[in-house]
Amino acid sequence: MRIGFKALALCCGFTAMSAVATEEAEPEAATGFALQKMASGTNTMAATANPYATKAAAKILARGGSAVDAAIAAQMMLTLTEPQSSGIGGGFFMVYWDASKQQLVSLDGRETAPMAAQPDLFMRGDKPMRFADAVVGGHSVGVPGVVAGMYAAHQRYGKLPWSTLFDDAIALAQQGFIVSPRLAALLDREFNPGLNRDGAAADYFAPEDEWLQAGDRRDNPELAATLTAIAEQGPVAFYQGKLAKQIVAAVQQDPDHPGLLTEADLAAYQPKWREPLCQPYRGKQVCGMGPPSSGAVAVGQILSLLEPFAIDKMAVNGDKFIHHYAQASRIAYADRAHYLADPDFVEVPLAQLLNQDYLAKRSAEIPVAKDAGKVSHGEFNLGHGADATAALPSTSHMVMADKEGNLLSLTASIEMGFGSTVMVGGFLLNNELTDFSRHPGKGKQLAANRVEGGKRPRSSMAPTIVLDDNGQPLLALGSPGGSRIINYVSQVTLSLLDWQLPLNQAVALPRVSHRNDYLLLEQGTELEQRKAAFELRGYKVKVAPLNSGVQVIKRTDNGWQGAADPRREGIAIGG
Ligand code: DON
Question: How far apart are the CA of 558 and the centre of ligand 1, in A?
């Protein structure tokens, strides 16, 4: 049952509307567990967080499309069928192995702050807004990067015509898709406080004032029209003209938190090809997205910090492993918070952060068995101030392999589940600007990740490709999960490289997270029983549902294997 925003505000006050979007909440809640078999394919593989999207991608691959073509078809489908997590109103990062050139590339399709945004965007007086308030409305919307980024990827690596990649999503938007249990559960829980506002999102997700239920058929003619325009005209249909004007109007006229986005901001958006970042680990190269994502740096640091400890000799998720893993995470999250931000605006000391001597020194500081307590960032004297980016921050990870041997790893997001809840043209706009530090810092001590006009907020998204000992692509993986993405991706990478777990076991492995605050063990798994043992080691321990969504592909002698995280609704299909 949905009660209108105004009625609720009168009875209960804004803060009572959602028990979910608090500082302690995760950006998307856990909604179940369904262990999957591993898929295999001689020529191709597609794995996404949603069956409709995987099927659309598999169809493109079967028609001879490239991994990039398949990813575009999947992303357009996700905009319709997994609208809470990602879509054309958001951004993405992609890491891609180009088999013909034997080259790894990465693409930044991250959202960008409007030019008029100032460091105090989320300040009210001398205090930052509550995260739950910052999320909702026009002021948190960054210029979306998905359409321009995907078009740029297609220009370089597409094989099938751009317009054909939209066919299935447009047809399903017209006919209606079946609402999944996860989407229905997140709606029912009023996961994002903004869902309770009157407006386009409420009208779409709660027709006749009732939240959509699992099994309902929901069409989206507005999205069908938007996708048709983008299919026919390309990005210009999104960043200029009628749709751009609608986006700007919805953002600027938001009834609660008007935003600063202008038509000029939209027209100026540019995706950026950036150097991928690779860190050696046990003879392999673990490669991912550099800044403005903190993903590859932090994942690379965690692995390097653990290399001296021979994880392969430790029991799978054993106490010794969890202790060392948690301590390495502490260090990586401390550095991340202080130094990682958009490199086009601040100096990010990448070479120092990934330097083997620096990491060996810090690894040697890891206590044998006890928790070290809160650790500090390394000192590289750049004069940054303290970071106040939310420790938590919707997001979706996909992996694709085509018959030419190209491999793709792509994480896309609209940030919080249901984004800013501002809906235009049949899709949700992101609230990615909340990935900036809400408090800019004081005087000269400014946070590296403060808001600035034209800047991209720091991300934790970690689309990853692992190259084997011969420099050939071996694995592609990634996950949603807010800033815990780094933990999910590094733990699964270790489980594949060190413990050689089969893919479906690796994606199901009980999760452990530590962000230099407390040890979090996954609820409903055997890890729950280990709480007391870690408290004895001095840890502050919490047990909670952990909401990874890892999709993974592995190259084998016979082609490809793939698997999808049982915590979400994804599937993998080989061809
Ligand atoms: O870019 C980031 O790091 C976040 N906006 C990702 C958010 C996320 O993973 C939400 N997911 N469950």
Answer: 34
